[in-house]
Design goal:
50% strand, 483 residues, 6 helices, 6-stranded antiparallel β-sheet, single chain, globular, 10% helix
Length: 483
């Protein structure tokens, strides 16, 4: 029997002089007899149209699915053991009414399959997909408008391919033709796409594409990739920062299928520098930095017009920052602070520079710094002892079914040096308070509660809030908290 309730829990977290509350969101019993002892992973798929959602608990081919409507009422539960064992790597899913289809791959991504959960007929079924990626490399995956997508690139031609899957595993294959464009990899001279990307592998492999959803509360740790994929209702933007002289953006209209390659120059430096960028609301925020100077440049993508540029040298004060430089060794250790510009420039340049921007109430919240990966954080330990979300690793390609869980994982898997800045609507410097990242709040809760009795944990976004779910081995309840 399921229990569904919503009431405030008065647990107060005092972080940076802020009071942040959490409340119980949903609680249900795992009522299949052996399921609590099998399930080690979980992820949640939310219907973008209706706000209904399904919680999946998995281990290998065993998948237990619990479906709820937007009022948090139970609408069905299904258990499947039909998926062949070779399909161990979940990639994402497609939702159509009460049908939720999960897509899986084998280890070497040469074979694909799906499993349909139909909560109306209370029926599930598996199928294999006739998808052979000949002369293609799998780049990334994403869910958009309740559909599962794969993005691939041709080995032989200057083409990208976009696969869009329905609930039955049938797919539409769209061609993104880039043959008329010159690209710049790590070299100074233009090349064809396939050659430019090969030249850029010393900086970062093309398969290291980071899906960025502007409504997720990322930490800076998630932004170190030189390839970022942004998607809105109309367009797909693949932003490439392989070359430190310019940012290259592949813009693809999802409706008209028009393609464009946009090149936005980076500021000119006399000495070698590193760069990265972030795209938000039609504005490109570019960061360029070395041990001598740093520039933050904001450009309107539609007009290619420079809006604003902020520059500091090692001899200047860090007037672009609110407060001192923060330095964290593992996101939840005590952090250190310093205020010397020269030290900040040296530390950022020695790592992987990154920039993260969020817009809130007419201001732009900007984090600038660098990130280095570490292996001793709490979440890293959890990922190996009690997996936090289903992850599939294909060489350098890492797929998370739930991008929010990936952002949560990355928030504690690194050490970072960064500054926080606020810009007004005209991109001038202004002042205010740095907000607390919600992922840190959730992680503090995990630390306080302990993790030994929990398994199959997940973090996902729902109706503007963040939901943390986990299975309690003792009570056999799957509980979700809203933060």
């Amino acid at each position: 029997m399921y229990k569904s309730f919503l009431y405030p829990t008065l647990i107060l977290l005092f972080l940076q002089l802020k009071v942040i509350s959490q409340e119980e969101f949903l609680d249900f019993t795992i009522d299949y007899p052996d399921t609590p002892f099998l399930m080690q992973n979980s992820f949640t798929m939310v219907d973008e149209l209706t706000d209904s959602f399904t919680v999946f608990l998995t281990k290998n081919s065993d998948i237990s699915a619990y479906h709820f409507d937007s009022a948090l009422q139970t609408k069905g539960r299904l258990l499947s053991r039909q998926l062949p064992n070779k399909y161990k790597f979940p990639l994402g899913g497609t939702i159509e009414n009460t049908k939720y289809t999960l897509f899986y791959s084998n280890k070497d991504k040469s074979k694909f399959a799906g499993i349909v959960f139909d909560f109306n007929t209370r029926w599930s079924n598996t199928f294999e997909i006739d998808l052979k990626l000949r002369n293609e490399i799998l780049l990334t995956q994403f869910n958009h408008s309740n559909k599962f997508h794969l993005l691939t690139a041709s080995y032989r031609e200057d083409l990208l391919y976009l696969y869009i899957f329905d609930n039955s595993g049938q797919y539409e294959k769209k061609i993104i033709d880039l043959s008329k464009y010159d690209f710049f990899g790590g070299a100074k001279h233009p090349a064809r796409l396939k050659h430019a990307l090969a030249l850029g592998t010393t900086i970062g492999p093309f398969t290291d594409i980071k899906l960025v959803q502007n409504d997720i509360a990322y930490s800076l740790d998630s932004m170190i990739s030189w390839y970022k994929l942004y998607i809105n209702e109309e367009k797909l933007y693949l932003v490439i920062d392989l070359n430190t002289d310019l940012t290259q953006i592949i813009a693809y209209n999802l409706h008209t299928e028009d393609v464009d390659l946009i090149k936005i120059p980076q500021p000119s430096f006399k000495q070698e520098a590193k760069s990265n960028s972030y795209f938000l609301n039609g504005k490109l925020f570019q960061l360029k930095i070395n041990t001598q100077e740093m520039v933050l440049q904001i450009t309107d993508l539609a007009t290619k017009k420079l809006i604003k540029e902020h520059h500091i040298s090692k001899h200047d004060s860090l007037n672009i920052a609110i407060g001192p430089v923060r330095q964290r060794g593992g996101r939840y250790e005590n952090h250190r602070e310093f205020d010397k510009t020269s030290k900040f420039l040296r530390k950022v340049t020695s790592g992987n520079p990154a920039i993260l921007v969020d817009e809130f109430d007419g201001t732009y919240q900007v984090n600038i710094g660098s990130v280095k990966e570490i292996n001793d954080s709490l979440l890293h330990a959890i990922a190996f002892t009690s997996p936090f979300s289903v992850v599939a690793v294909f060489g350098s390609v890492t797929f998370f079914v739930n991008p929010v869980a990936l952002a949560f994982y990355k928030a504690s898997d690194t050490k970072a040096v960064y500054i926080f800045s606020l810009l007004d609507e005209n991109f001038e410097l202004t002042y205010g308070e740095e907000p607390e990242n919600i992922f840190y709040v959730i992680h503090d809760y995990i630390e306080r509660e302990g993790i030994k009795r929990f398994t199959a944990a997940d973090v996902f976004k729902y109706k503007g809030g963040y939901i943390f779910g986990r299975l309690d081995r003792k009570t056999k309840n799957y509980s979700l908290l809203k933060f």
